[in-house]
Design brief:
By secondary structure, the chain is mainly alpha-helical. Helix content is 69%, strand content 2%. It has a two-stranded antiparallel ribbon with strand order 1-2. Helix 8 runs parallel beside helix 14, helix 11 packs antiparallel against helix 12 and helix 13 packs antiparallel against helix 16. The protein is globular.
Length: 398
Amino acid sequence: MNPSTPLLVLAVAAAVGAVLLNLLLRKQSRGMLLVSAVGAVSGAVGAAAFMVPLNFCTFEAERDPVDFWFGIGLSAIGILAVTGLASWVLNSILQRRRLFEVQSSPGAFRGSGLAFLFLAPTLIILVLFLYYPFIDTFRLATLLARLGIPRTAFVCVDNFTRLVSNNDYLQVLGNTIWQSIAIVGFSIGLALLIALAAYQPVKGARIYRALLIWPYAISPVVAGIIFLILFNPTGGIINYALQSAFNFSIPWLNNPSAAPWAVIIVSVWKSLGFNILFYIAGLQNVPKDLLEAAAIDGANIFQRFFRITVPMLSPITFFLIITNTTYAFFDTFGTIDTLTGGGPLRSTASMMYSVYEVGIQNNDLGKAAAQSIVLFIFVIGLTIVQFRTAGQRVNYGA
């Protein structure tokens, strides 16, 4: 690599940071020289935060174009993060706002020392068992590391960039997306319909409401074992009932077209209880006077449902979309491993299951770490999009 390449990258990052910070603080009428200087430092620090640990390897001459653009993307993320933080701090300073305000209300700490002393045990546990492993995963993703072999080799960002041309991983990505959409859609839709029926004032309602909720208490592995017996192609109860009633059977676990639906059915059944519990609680908060007023005005049951009940349940629906999406991406691993093992023909393998396969079964810790980071970023990005889109349509008013 050319010795001047790191300096060139940092210089470009500094220029971008200076321009970006001036744009973020364009309403300030003074201190533009200070803003430019802070922006330049922020841009250089942001790019260096990603590039220095990688030794600027993505910009080496022998690297593929995808590696170069991957390095550009990492630098851009660092510039945006550090410059955004600098914008907030500098804006507060220029406007003479206090960054930290000490509360003087009764029962509050007068200083931060005692508060951090009480928080120290929790912070130590979080650092040791959450933050350090999380950060170390990024280091591991840049290495050729094998489980049980102490020697490692630095491979730059190959573990990430090779995923783009990995057809098997692209199939896994497609499986995860469409199965997650199906799981979230069916589980929330069915839960709302069942909650509406369970909410009706009938005798023994508490008993059958409890029976509706109990599947949520079962672990995904146990649910997978239960449905492994039910979906067994030869001696399963479901195929026996279909053969007896309609004279046909479905190869649930042997057909690449049917196996994903088996996983979806199990996952929907597993999460129904959680969703029903929240919808029943939400239905209790729907004002009955609004429904009665709409009925007096001539609105039928469907109009009352879609115009009043559904909007009033929108905060719960939004919450369930987020939690069910997380469940579909992560917690279905136990079900897939027990029910199908990712097959047949990789038709049910998810991103989470692929991390397990690559890291544990194939002993390739570096690639598994890279895939886990991609999964993490994918879920975080999807959650942000949901907050930016569906979150703005949530009605919190009465």
